[in-house]
Each structure stands twice: as C-alpha cells, then as structure tokens.
Amino acid sequence: MKIETLLLIGLILFLIGHYISQKKLLQRGLKEKKPLAQLRYLLLSGFILMGFAVWAVMRHEPPYGTWGSLLFIESAVSLSFARKLIKKALK
C-alpha cells in the first residue's frame, strides 16, 4: 500500500473521532446555561482545521487537495456547532 493511502485512512479515522468528540461537546454545551468553555474549544478547533485545510489546498499536489477538502468539511461542522452554542448563549 502507498504511504498516501495509509495517511488518508489515518486522516479519515482522525476526522471520525474528531466529529464524535465535537458532537459530545455540543451536547454538553447545550445542557449548560453559559457554554463558554465548549464554545471556545469549538471555535478554536474549527479555525485550526480551517487553517490546515487552506494550507493543504494551496499546496496544489495530488493528495493534499483531497485532504484539504476533508479538513474544510470538518472545520465547517465545528464552526456550525459553535454557531448553535452562540445562539443558545445569546438567548
């Protein structure tokens, strides 16, 4: 197996674990009155993943475009979870 294939499988497994942890974090944040800690973590995670996604897409080499797309999707999920918590915190 090529190294790129193994890295892609590893990235997919990481993103699955990241999504599950983000979902649990969102559920905990929705139960709290002021979910600032969860909100901070979701925003930080989303922006860091967005930075890696932009870097990967800017590389213009074969495996990095796919990786950048996957990272961009995961960062958008984190930021949408943070948006839900912001709406809850402002009520």
Topology (SSEs and partners):
Elements: H1 3-31, H2 36-58, H3 62-90
Structure described in brief:
This protein is mainly alpha-helical and 91 residues long. The chain has helices spanning 3-31, 36-58, 62-90.
Task: Quickly list its features.
91 residues, elongated, single chain
Structure description:
The chain is mainly alpha-helical and 91 residues long. The protein has a domain at 33-91. It contains 3 helices and no strands. The chain has helices spanning 3-31, 36-58, 62-90. α1 runs antiparallel to α2 and α2 packs antiparallel against α3. The longest helix has 29 residues, at 3-31. The model has no long low-confidence stretch (mean pLDDT 92).
Tell me the total number of β-strands.
Answer: 0
Distance between the termini: 52 Å
Structural class computed from helices and strand pairing = mainly alpha
**What proportion strand?**
under 5%
- Overall geometry comes to elongated
- Using only C-alpha atoms, the radius of gyration works out to 15 Å
Question: How many H/I helical runs?
Answer: 3
> Mind describing the biggest β-sheet?
none
Low-confidence stretches: none
Order of helices and strands: HHH
Helix content: over 70%
Overall residue-averaged pLDDT value:
92
